[in-house]
Design a protein that fits this description.
By secondary structure, the chain is α+β, with helices and mostly antiparallel strands. Helix content is 17%, strand content 47%.
């Protein structure tokens, strides 16, 4: 009986381990497909509120998971504002103040430029691959695409914004189509939907994203990709504090 129990326990642990590995492989493949080795993106970000809306033109450069630069091109009052990420550190260049500010970890959960995205969402300070434990918890269908439902729980040592993520990833093309963001108490904070799947620079990706806060009616932020270039060479020296002041 003890031998049977031991064999059952070992088999069950192996199944759980394999399941977790499969879940991590799915997350990693989706992340790498959307991110590429490098990417250069031009996008429009539209913040919608019950009585007003606001639109920004944004340009972003990313290299791997550690380097990112985001430039605000419009409206005029925000033109030239830049965010820089190098590994786990994030800086903000404010041209009106001629000052570079380092963002503390406590600010990563704050709203990015008054939108429903957080600073962490935009610069990806935390790693969806390395900072969470992953598991497959079900299946669903989104826009006629069969998807995995994955649960992501932060590792004990990880300094992350979210207490839990529920992510839906297309089984064929590994597109992240739906994500729910929960706080440390398990309360739903934001829901992100991705759609308008198109080929951009020979890569199939969603091009329209909307972030919807759970507790604020008639409020959302939309992000629409206008163009994307993947895997073009970008030198590491591009992602520096000095470059923030001259990037265009």
């Amino acid at each position: 009986m003890k031998l049977l129990l031991l064999l059952f326990t070992c088999s069950f642990c192996c199944i759980l381990n394999l399941h977790a590995q499969d879940a991590m492989a799915i997350i990693k493949k989706a992340d790498e497909k959307f991110r590429g080795n490098t990417s250069q993106v031009e996008m429009t970000i539209r913040t919608v509120r019950p009585t007003w809306s606001r639109e920004m033109s944004v340009k972003a450069w990313m290299k791997g998971a550690d380097l990112a630069m985001i430039l605000i091109q419009a409206p005029a009052k925000d033109k030239g504002i830049v965010f820089l990420k190098r590994k786990k550190e994030v800086w903000n260049w404010m041209p009106s103040l001629e000052r570079t500010i380092k963002l503390p970890p406590s600010m990563m959960s704050q709203s990015w430029m008054g939108t429903d995205f957080t600073n962490d969402d935009l610069v990806k300070e935390s790693s969806i691959v390395n900072d969470y434990n992953h598991s497959i918890i079900g299946d669903t269908v989104i826009d006629n695409r069969s998807c995995y439902i994955l649960q992501l729980l932060p590792k004990p040592e990880a300094a992350v914004v979210w207490g839990k993520l529920i992510v839906c990833i297309d089984k064929v093309d590994y597109l992240e189509l739906h994500t729910r963001f929960y706080d440390e108490d398990g309360k739903l904070v934001n829901t992100m939907n991705a759609y308008d799947v198109k080929v951009m620079d020979q890569r199939l990706i969603p091009t329209h994203f909307e972030m919807i806060p759970a507790d604020k009616q008639h409020q959302k932020t939309e992000m629409v990709y206008k163009s994307v270039l993947y895997n073009r060479p970008i030198e590491d020296v591009f992602f520096t504090a000095d470059k923030m002041k001259t990037v265009n």
